[in-house]
Each structure stands twice: as C-alpha cells, then as structure tokens.
Amino acid sequence: MTFDALRTTTLAFVEAHQGWTPLIVGGLAFCESLAVLSLFVPATVLLLGIGALMGSVGIPFLPVMLAGAFGAALGDWISYEFGHHYKEGAKGMWPLSRYPAMVTRGEEFCRRWGAGGVAIGRFFGPARAVVPLVAGIFGVKRLPFQVANVLSALVWAFAMLAPGAGLLGYLKG
Description:
It is a single chain. The chain is mainly α and 173 residues long. It is 75% helix and 0% strand.
C-alpha cells in the first residue's frame, strides 16, 4: 500500500466513523512516539490530515487532542522505561545498534537539556521517539521526565491538530 493510499484510506475511515477519531489519533500518536514503531508509521502527516478533517466535518477537538496527548505520552513513557530497564544494553539492540551516531546525539542532547530535552525533542522529527529512550538509558529521573513528557505531549497534540481544525483562527478572534 502506498503512502497516498494509506492517507486516503485513513481519512475516509475517520470521516465515516467519526466516533473512532480519538482512538485513531491516540494510536497514531502512540506509534509516532514509540521508539521502533515511529520509524514505520507516517503519523505526522496523518495527524495533520485528521486535524483538517475534524475542522471540516465538526469532530469535537478536545477529546481528540487529549487522546493524541495520551498516546504520545504513553509511547514516550514505554520508550523511557525500556531504556531505563536495559540501560547500556539497549544500545546494542536493533534499531539503536544500527544508528550509534543517533544514540550519541541523543545522549548529548539529554546531557545538555536533561528532562527538558524530552519536551524539546518531541518537536524534532526522528528525535521525537529516540530522546525518551536515551533519557531512560542516560538515567533522567522519572518525575522530571514524566512532567516534561505529559506537558509536551499536550502541546504537541494541540500543534498537530489545531491548525487543520481551524482553532488557531478561532483563538485569534
């Protein structure tokens, strides 16, 4: 299945089954945030498209945004716990073993920004799913990690869905 076919099918499904939108968005956000799945799921484009669809067909924004934030936070949390559990051994596992330079950059990022790096990393493509994993390996404390994780997930979900849903124009006046 091509990417265009996947996008078209997903958006058609959401339009036909609007009640499933929070679950779909939560699942896509989870896949986008989980270390390995994020490499295979083109969630960002799908989420932007769903945001636009929400605005055009009147799907309520808040439940969908909260589901997206929950999925993103859960994916990061699982990635963090995997890194926290396996520590340095996680670097030898696929896919990290194939991208040692990416792991090194993630470590430098965590060293420089700490838990704040989780919030910053959420907004930068491939770093989105790697930074929480590396934060777990690197030993960022759980509470600061979770605060950064949840708050940035809320902002990220809003940023993914709001432009298409028309909320930015509504908030401006």
